[in-house]
Amino acid sequence: MMETAWIIPLFPLLSFLILLLFGKRLKESSAVVGILLTLASLVYSVLVLFERFSAPTFKTEAVWLTIGDIHLTAGFEVNQLNALMLVIVSLVSCLVHTYSKGYMHGDERFHVFYAYLGLFTFAMLGLVLSPNLLQTYIFWELVGVGSFLLIGFYFYKEEAKQAAKKAFIMTRIGDVGLLIGMILLFWQTNSFEYDNIFKAVADGSVTQGWITLTAILIFIGAMGKSGQFPLHTWLPDAMEGPTPVSALIHAATMVAAGVYLVAALFPLFAASQTALMTVAVIGGFTAIFAASIGLVQTDIKRVLAYSTVSQLGYMMLALGSGGYVAGVFHLMTHAFFKALLFLAAGSVIHAAHTQDIEEMGGLWKKLRLTGPLFLIGTLAISGVPLLSGFFSKDEILAAAWEGGHPVLFLLAVVAAFFTAFYMFRLFFMVFTGEARSEMKSVHESPSTMTLPMIVLGVLAVVSGYVNTTWFGSFLGDWLTDGNKVLSGSHTEGPAWIMVVATLVSLAGIFLAWLMYGKRSLSRDWLSGKGSTLHTILYNKYYVDEFYQMSIIKIVKGISYFLRFIDVFLVEGIVKGVGGAVQGLGKTGSKLQTGQVQTYGAMAFVGLAVLVVIFALTGGYLK
Amino acid sequence: MSTIPASAFLSLALILFCIGLYGALTKRNTVIVLISIELMLNAVNINLVTFSKYGIKPSITGQIFALFAITVAAAEAAVGLAILIALYRNRRTINIDEMDSMKN
Amino acid sequence: MTFSGEFFAFMSLALVAVIGGVLLLNLTKVMHMIIALVFTFISIAGIYVLLSAEFVAVVQILIYAGAITILMLFAIMLTKHDDASEAQGTIWRKLLLLLGVIGFAFAVYIGIYNFNVEQLPSHLHENNVLQIGKALYTKHVIPFELTSVLLLVALVGAIILAKNDEKEAHKE
Predict the structure, then answer these.
(1) CA A113, CA C65: separation in Å to the nearest integer?
(2) Beta carbons of B40 and C64 less than 8 angstroms apart
(3) Of A17, A66, B10, C82, which residue has the fewest beta carbons closer than 10 angstroms?
(4) Is residue A1's pLDDT more than 60?
């Protein structure tokens, strides 16, 4: 099975090609093609994962390019992390394919949507199978293309167009860092291979300074993809895309690619304390920063988007604190419960035809299935005990504590409190209270949409039990098995951390209940319109405005200057040459009067000039 | 033997040629243009006759040439005027600057 | 250079010829221009006499002063000739041409001024017509006959060109 793992990404590629060629004829049945082929990927991935439990890492490569003595290879690798990622990606992708059948029903570009989904899934699966940085980079960019196409799916909407461009450009800024880091690593180690790089790092043939520099540059790439501060602003805007896309790309898979990259290159990061610290600080800051913005947003998808940014920050914080297992574990659980939340939100939007939570309310009774599923997701993300989020978050807090950064630990705890608060604020505002008049006609979504949610709901509950303090840390042991650098990264924190985490999340839930559920506490101190704090948070700390004022102004200035050069200098020369020739032609054609006398006069004057020159110079031109 | 140098005759021919040339290139009336061309031919004839007498080897051939030139000039004048009449019949003008059918 | 009678004759003839040419350029009426040119042609005939070419002089008077001038007068009278106005915007062209002509004259004059060939005694004036006749019918007989053909062609061509087409005349 593992020897033929390369076939997994080819199923979605096949789906993409089929839909590209025959999509117009297949119409709505293109969903069947997409679902079946991604289901094939899923089955294959699961089989590979189970085989990987007993077999060692499989890796195969073929020489692709030869430059002098250096051989660039292409191939694939199935290690623990890759096998896990394969399952996560193909599972979420398969569920989203299924969900979209109901959600996108009636869209005239239905088949195009499925084609794009196939392309994205192919790229993402290819990314997680890559054994070297070069291949990773190729798929990394392909993933970006898929994301761009899907965000801009409703390209006739101006916001969607802008969001697609923004996502592409912002992630590209990060990609430049990744590319530079990659090239520097290649320069230092003469290889793009992960294994060779780790070997070079381990035996000290790369100096500490280079390790730190390349690690941070690669982390910049991860920041762009995973929406870490300060490159996070594209992710909330990417919510302009269809909701299943948000679930697939901007919650479960692509944004996790950054975390995956840091995890895949963890030995490199682990070799530099500075790099780890950078990852941790950026992650921790992003976690609380995005969570605080999420407190006041009123768009259901934007709240979830900021929650995603915040959770990704969490994962980065875990990785930066040396908690490799914690980061990957949370990546997995987060993929499940965040995808669930997005799909449930999509179901809500599908039913209520609005994204503004201020306009919603009382949907619990209307959406008998979506409501409880949303509640499960909310409980999971808030870290309520016995659900998946609780175990992974606990692991992260333990890692942060063990990592020895009390400030970061504190940040993580506060962020957990915020998370619980804003998630339940969302829940209470949408599902409880009084139903608005226009919410009378809402109805439950079709079964193609609820089925994936149920699957994810189950996973959101149980996926945490693969790695718990009580029943053994199976996942952690497996992930770190046979890897010296990682073996120390899985520790169990003191028991009080678990208590603290539980108390904090319960406190957040209780506060949210007081304010939005029971309404016994005034909302005005936080979300009352007009207060300074609220304004700042509502405008997302004015980061976009800051970019607008600073970077964009500068770039625009340079652009104007270059445009000026282009218009007046380059174009001037071009137009000057053209105009001169044209003028010459016009003058020439004016001379063509058709009168013999004029021709004779011209010929004679020319002759006279020649004769005069001849007479004056004596026939020799000196 | 003559007391007048050859250059005097040649200068006269030159002056007449230049007058004819200027007239041929500036006058609007086609008849006058034709006449100017006749004047230029006359200037050439003066040169021919001059060289027949003052040339390195004086000979009657120069005068014969002049006679031929006069004959051709007469024929040219006749045909030229015939063309002019035909043109005038069609275009109702003999102004040379209105004869620009070569342009289109 | 002495003031011989020959020189005086040359000077007066040359003066009349040049004045006639200048009048051709400056007179406004077409008829007057042609009359002025007759004087030039007759003066040139005189010049020919000075150059010991009596026969050419006679032919000059016959053909130029007689035939061609009369032909031109007929052409003038057959066409519209009262329009003597000059075309607009030709001042610059005239100036340019004047400069060109003066430059041309200057250049050629440099060549003429230094023209100095040793004068050999010639016998052209003795029995001029006889000499011409001999040369024409012996040495130059083929060009002579060709000239007759040329004249015939010109005659026929001129008649065909100038003939008023019957059909066109009916149309008008």
Answers:
(1) 100
(2) no
(3) C82
(4) yes
- Specify if C133 maps to a domain: no
Strand partners, A433: none
Q: Over its length of 104 residues, how does chain B's per-residue pLDDT go in tens digits?
A: 567 888 889 999 999 999 999 998 888 888 888 889 999 999 999 999 998 888 888 888 889 999 999 999 999 988 988 888 888 888 777 777 777 777 76
Task: State how many domains chain C has.
Answer: 2
CA atoms of A276 and A283, how far apart (whole Å)? 10
Q: Based on the domain organization, do C111 and C149 belong to the same domain?
A: no
Contacts of B93 (CB under 8 A, 6+ apart): B99, C80
Beta-bridge mates of residue A70: A67
User: Are B24 and A600 an interchain contact pair (Cβ–Cβ within 8 Å)?
Assistant: yes
- Using an 8 Å Cβ cutoff, are A420 and A378 in contact? no
Out of A552-566, A585-599, C47-61, C114-128, give the one with best mean pLDDT: C47-61
- Collect all residues with Cβ–Cβ distance below 8 Å to B16 and sequence separation of at least 6: B39, B40, B42, B43, B46, C17, C18, C21, C40, C44
Amino acid at the residue A425? R
Which tokens is A8 given?
A: 């997994």
Among A286-295, A418-427, A429-438, the minimum mean pLDDT is found in A429-438
Contacts of B73 (CB under 8 A, 6+ apart): B38, B41, C63, C68
**What is the average pLDDT across A412-436?**
81
Token pair 């998630």 in the structure block, residue: A423
Q: What is the pLDDT of residue A579?
A: 92
Of A605, A609, A614, the CB nearest to C97: A605
pLDDT at A3: 78
Domain around C24:
5-126
Domains of chain B: 28-95 (1.10.287.3510)
Residue C41 lies in a domain: yes
In the chain, the amino acid numbered C62 is L
Residues of A in contact with B33 (CB under 8 A): 597
